[in-house]
TrEMBL record:
Keywords of the record: DNA-directed RNA polymerase, Metal-binding, Nucleotidyltransferase, Transcription, Transferase, Zinc
Annotated EC: 2.7.7.6
A single cellular component GO annotation: DNA-directed RNA polymerase complex
Keyword Signal: no
Stored Gene3D superfamilies: RNA polymerase II, clamp domain (4.10.860.120)
GO molecular function: DNA binding; DNA-directed RNA polymerase activity; metal ion binding
SUPFAM superfamilies referenced in this protein's UniProt entry, alphabetically: beta and beta-prime subunits of DNA dependent RNA-polymerase
Residue ranges crossing the lipid bilayer per the database entry: none
Name the record gives this protein: DNA-directed RNA polymerase
Segments forming domain RNA polymerase Rpb1: 1-136
InterPro entries attached to this UniProt entry: RNA_pol_Rpb1_1, RNA_pol_Rpb1_clamp_domain, RPC1
């Protein structure tokens, strides 16, 4: 996100707080370099008018990572399927081949794919020792 963004956004204020002055604060959420919202001025980044400027990204540097709540359970399940030491999938060779054939099947609809995912996670949770590196993986 940082590579495609034009400016950092680190000022939480929207407008200049001077009496009678309603100018957007630089490096704030309404910075004119992020795009414009009125018909009379041009964008300070691309110099286009309101109808031609598509808007521009800003980014906020966060002190800690923020995880998407909608994907949190899926991420935990995926992490439980891999070795914590060598990142190999915690399945035997036969299981990998069997599941790979099922995943590559063309007649998988959404419900079958979801059920297959559950079976892969369940099979991975049953294996506590990695077949590749031999380390023990404990789930809490």
């Amino acid at each position: 996100m940082k590579q495609v963004a034009h400016i950092p956004v680190f000022n939480s204020r929207l407008y200049d707080e001077s009496p009678g002055c309603w100018n957007p604060v630089p490096y704030g959420p309404l910075d004119p370099r992020l795009g414009i919202c009125n018909k009379t001025s041009n964008c300070q980044t691309c110099k286009q008018n309101l109808s031609d400027c598509v808007g521009h990204f800003g980014y906020i540097d966060l002190a800690m990572p923020v995880f998407h709540v909608g994907f949190f359970r899926l991420i935990i399940q995926m992490l439980q399927c891999v070795c914590k030491y060598c990142s190999a999938l915690l399945l035997t060779g036969e299981q990998k081949q069997s599941f790979l054939r099922q995943v590559n099947s063309t007649n998988l609809d959404y419900l079958r794919r979801k059920a297959l995912h559950k079976r892969i996670v369940a099979a991975s949770k049953k294996i506590s020792v990695c077949a590749r590196c031999g380390h023990r993986n404990v789930f809490t």
